[in-house]
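Worked Example 4.2. Consider the chain below.
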Amino acid sequence: MSNDTTNKSFSRHLENNRELFIKTGVRYEKLDLTNLLFVQTEGKYIALHFKDGKRLLRVSLVNFLKESSHLNLIRIHKGFAINTDYINSYTSQEVTVLDNEIPIGRSYKGNWVNYLNKTNKKNLGR
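Applying the procedure from the previous section yields the following structure tokens:
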């Protein structure tokens, strides 16, 4: 299957959904994206990391983030996007998502700072 076909199929399945069916061998597996911890690039694939393991999907990180804008994902590195629901702690260099330390890239530090400012304003406004 070509990457273009995969991306079209991916778009139809993910749009405004919190679940995604991916093909594993001859079987389709349903993934609950609300349990997604972070996304990592792996060549032409992205790895969706969950508490119980990871699943590979042949789509670019840019396209995945574009199609999953309804999820609480933020890109903090060239090769990583994190689910903000699972952040445990952070430093100026990395974010800890459960037990996974994800680096903050220089080019994406602005995304991270914007997220922190927005979150702090929201929390102070309560």
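The chain is about 30% helix and 40% strand. The beta strands are 19-24, 27-32, 36-42, 45-50, 53-57, 73-77, 80-83, 87-90, 94-97, 100-103. Compare this with Example 4.1 before moving on.
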